[in-house]
Amino acid sequence: MMAELFGRVDGYCKGKGGSMHIADFAVGMLGANGIVGGGLPIACGAALAAHLEGKGDVTVCFFGDGAAAEGEFHEALNIASVWKLPIVFVCENNQYAANNAVAVQHPGVDIAAHAGAYHMPGVIIDGNDVLAVYAATGDAVIRARRGDGPSLLECKTYRWHFHAMRNTPPAETRSADEIRSWKARDPIARLEQHGLERGVLSAAEIGTIRERVKSDLDEAVAFAEQSPFPDPKDLLVDMFAD
Amino acid sequence: MREISFQKALEEAVAEEMRRDPRVILLATDFTGDPIKEFGPARVRFTPISEAVLTGMGLGAAGSGFRPIVNWRMVTFSFVAMDQIVNQASKIRYMFGGQADFPVTYRCTTGGGIGLAAQHSQSPYSMWMHLAGLKIILPSTPADAKGLLKSAIRDNNPVVSFECSRLANVTGPVPDGDHVVPLGVAEVKRAGTDVTIVALAYYVPEALAVAETLAREGISVEVVDPRTLVPLDAETVRASVRKTGRVVIVDEAPATCSAASEIAALLAEDPETFRCLKAPVRRVCAAPVPVPYSPPLEQAALPSRADITAAVYDVLKESLRAL
After folding, report:
1. Which domains does chain B have, with CATH numbers?
2. What does the pLDDT read at residue B322?
3. What is the 3-state secondary structure (H, E, C) of chain A?
4. Which positions 170-199 of A are in contact with B (Cβ < 8 Å)?
5. Of A77, B41, B207, B295, which has the most beta carbons under 10 Å away?
6. Cα(B63)–Cα(B103) distance, rounded to whole angstroms?
7. Cα torsion angle, B251, B253, B254, B256, sign
8. pLDDT (tens digit per residue) in A55-91
9. How many CB pairs under 8 A join A and B?
10. pTM
């Protein structure tokens, strides 16, 4: 993945996709999208395939709060529900679509409210609570696998930085208090705290995990840096299948 | 050889491919014939009028091992799905580095001349050609319609099948059995020596009629049908023009940035073909207006046999002037 972000030939997409078009079909990850809402129809197609295969596969489709203002969101929820497709729609409501707050773009701030119109469960979850997300997702996957159709999970969370993590961000328009309050609810820190309180994780184990993640990332960056750039002679490769 | 209609030939292609491969599925708001009767509601799926999700589902199911045929019905409706066509279907294989194939066929009717007015009389194939990642077929006979659609369904890429409305009820000979026409192979529909007419879809039979009339005047016209717009068989077209030295390109899309423009450029850019040209390349296309409803206006907007004939005379005159 890091090699793809670096535009190198060893990336998942041989450097042709970059961060917005990253995919790993080997593990069933059918691709990220540069278009808000653009992935929902494709995910419905994967769910249709799973439904026709009948092997119990379930599609999970991620998008943000901004997608709920796109027509493709509504088309996808409608057909997924009409056909009872095995799909879980996961909205990461990080409160901002590009630079606009969710309350400015929608008549209500709860994206899950749309689920009712499409006759599917709509569940609002604290998206910064890892275990709550885990539990709700499990329920939705079971429902999908049972043949009862889609669910819409809305994970309330927050985007700490600017849209698209720009190098030269525009001036911050969000209140410092708002940013601070969400940073205090960092999902990783909360999971650590939960593990410590329950006695299932020690401080030493957390330190080891953090070290391992850091060394994994360092390794990934080193791998990406040593990977060559794609050869321009391969520019036209991958356009069409044989 | 038996004679069937263009529409029937297309239906046969779909039915035969569905029998041949159980992973071929149909998605559309409506169907011609009764495919559910033979193939059942799991494979033949009536959809809501939701072109964007329909188009994207074709891609998603194709990337997950199926071979969907998505029927937009009229090309008009595909414009509602522009994101899925432009941003997704035409780019998905390349931008993911060729990790997966997307064998999906998008079908639609195209063209004017049947009194359906502006929105339902469009021929936008050059917009799709421009995207580079979609294959495009545009047949002119029942036999080509069947053979090309079968190839499209078997192809491992997104293919758009443009099916000319004015040809739907035209009948013609179609070979029995597994009749397949490969993508990317043009056909010389009539051999001639004085002028090449490159014609698309409805204008292939029109060009043939013009050629027949001009033959009585001693003018020998060669008619070339590209049949597939992506990949475009430039070599067959160029070879014809190198032989005749004169070319008229006929299509019912307006001329600006059209398939006709692309063909003209492919001829003019090729040094050997350019050296053989005895007259400027000539396009006969629709007027640059939305196709109007009233019959006299519609006829005026679209190319006619008289327009084609006049263009043939023009290129002959131009080449005499050059002598």
Report:
1. 3-173 (3.40.50.970), 187-322 (3.40.50.920)
2. 66
3. CHHHHCCCCCCCCCCCCCHHHCCEHHHCECCCCCCCCCHHHHHHHHHHHHHHHCCCCCEEEEEEHHHHHCHHHHHHHHHHHHCCCCEEEEEEECCEECCEEHHHHCCCCCHHHHHHHCCCCEEEEECCCHHHHHHHHHHHHHHHHCCCCCEEEEEECCCCCCHHHCCCCCCCCCCHHHHHHHHCCCHHHHHHHHHHHHCCCCHHHHHHHHHHHHHHHHHHHHHHHHCCCCCHHHCCCCCCCC
4. none
5. B207
6. 8
7. negative
8. 999 999 999 999 999 999 999 999 999 999 999 999 9
9. 145
10. 0.96
Q: Which residue of A has its CA nearest to B231?
A: A240
Give me B201's structure tokens: 């879809």
ipTM given for this complex? 0.93
Contact residues for B226 (Cβ-Cβ < 8 A; gap 6+): B138, B186, B198, B200, B232, B233, B236, B237, B259, B263
> Is cis: bond before A232, omega within 30 of 0?
no
In chain A, where are the structural domains located?
37-159
Most B CBs within 10 Å: which of A52, A53, A234, A236, as the mutation test of the B interface? A52
DSSP class of residue B289?
Answer: S
Q: Mean pLDDT across chain B, nearest whole number?
A: 97
- Taking only the tens place, the pLDDT of each residue in B81-108 is 999 999 999 999 999 999 999 999 999 9
Whether residue B99 and residue A75 make contact (CB cut-off 8 A), yes or no, is no
Side-by-side strand order, sheet with B105-110: B44-46, B24-28, B67-74, B105-110, B159-164, B135-137, B228-230
Across the interface, which of B42, B50, B64 has its CB nearest the CB of A45? B64
Q: A179 with A160: CB under 8 angstroms?
A: yes
**Whole-angstrom distance, CA of residue B68 vs CA of residue B102:** 9
Chain A partners within 8 Å of B157 (Cβ): 240-241
| CA distances from residue A83 to B40, B95, B132, B317 in whole angstroms, order as listed | 15, 30, 33, 63
Tell me if B175 sits within 8 A of B214, measured CB to CB: no
The residues of B that are catalytic are: 120
**Are B163 and B30 contacting, i.e. CB atoms less than 8 angstroms apart?**
no
The neighbouring-strand residues paired with B163 are B109
In one letter, which amino acid is A162?
Answer: F
Which helix (H) or strand (E) covers residue B225, if one does?
A: strand B221-225
Which pairs from B272-276 meet CB under 8 Å and 24+ separation? Answer: B272/B238, B272/B242, B273/B238, B273/B241, B273/B242, B276/B241, B276/B242, B276/B243, B276/B245
Alpha helix (H) residue ranges in chain B: 6-20, 35-43, 51-62, 75-78, 82, 92-95, 125-129, 142-154, 203-215, 234-244, 259-269, 271-276, 295-301, 305-322
